[in-house]
Please model this.
Amino acid sequence: MKKGVLMVNLGSPDSTDPEDVKKYLGEFLMDERVIDFPLWARTLLVKGIILNTRPKKSAEAYSKIWWEKGSPLIVLSEMLQEKVSEKVDVPIVLAMRYGSPSMIQGLQKLNDMGVDEVLIFPLYPQFAMATTETILVLAEEIRAAHFPHMRFSDIPAFYNKPEYIEVLSRSIEEKIKDLDFEKLVFSYHGVPERHIRKSDVTKSHCKIDGTCCKTASAAHQFCYRHQCYETTRQVAEKLNLKEGTYFTSFQSRLGFDPWLQPYTDRTIERFGKEGIKKMAIVTPAFVSDCLETLEEIAMEGEEIFHEMGGKEFTTIPCLNDRDDWAHVVATWINDWAIVESSKAIA
Ligand SMILES: C=CC1=C(C)c2cc3[nH]c(cc4nc(cc5[nH]c(cc1n2)c(C)c5CCC(=O)O)C(CCC(=O)O)=C4C)c(C)c3C=C
Ligand SMILES: [Fe+2]
Ligand SMILES: [Fe+2]
Model:
């Protein structure tokens, strides 16, 4: 069997034109694992309401962060894929869950190379049904319909993998070592609380009450909230951060349902009001810088902090194509390729 890797990130619109943003948001938000309402209600909400108002606003936001080469998320994902490709012996193809290059195009490309043993690598440190799960489900649907001869395995959420914690901690340390910051915020993309309950395999563990995520449970293999807090805890331990100087919060909520709290914007506002002058913020749910880090945090977040009287607002870049991160990704891929080869020999 010939091996290859499908590296998958979220995706971006093709351009900042509101029509392209509308097309992208339509595909994204009609995913039943993102807006998890029955089809009729999702269609009404997305096509009847969100797509009439949001694309213009989102297009303006994208215009502020767009690069000459395109969407930062896609350019940075390509840079990672290229760097990792130099360090491994198997082909790596990059695909996006929404927009292009699509997952079906990516799998077709691998198929054309003769690859039939595929490692699906979702670029998400923490599991969520709106991210990791939807990638794996779509991959399997495409496999069954178009490439039934292929065999798939995947890289599970790596929120607590020592190599990931090491690189993330180093990326933070490099930015904060000379800062003398008062508060460090770990801001993760939010999800509706309902998503956490739906992903609870035990059906009874997740109470979202502040203690469940600290109590050992089989539910945590698929609990986004637990995995976010665990990433924060392990980094804080590695960097010897003092209790009370670091916080976990959740950003980018949409709609009126309760999402994971505390919310990042309110946390920044509170710190400003409390007289905090220097804060830093890291966004570990994102492997590549994107709209949510470059605009929502680095621009809007900074503005909120300054309006509330804060002075220094330091944003810590995502891992992007850092050499040490590319090295870790390459090691995981090489480990997979070796194990799969020895299975084939046995
Ligand atoms: C119900 C809506 C959404 C859920 C649930 C959700 C989960 C989720 N998203 C990411 C990562 C990213 N999201 C990004 C943009 C983005 N997310 C939503 C909505 C939900 N996300 C929207 C509507 C948008 C588009 C922008 C906007 O209009 O505000 C991005 C950035 C994409 C880019 O092109 O730069 C990322 C990355 C995660 C990790 C996650 C759950 C854990
Ligand atoms: Fe999102
Ligand atoms: Fe939990």
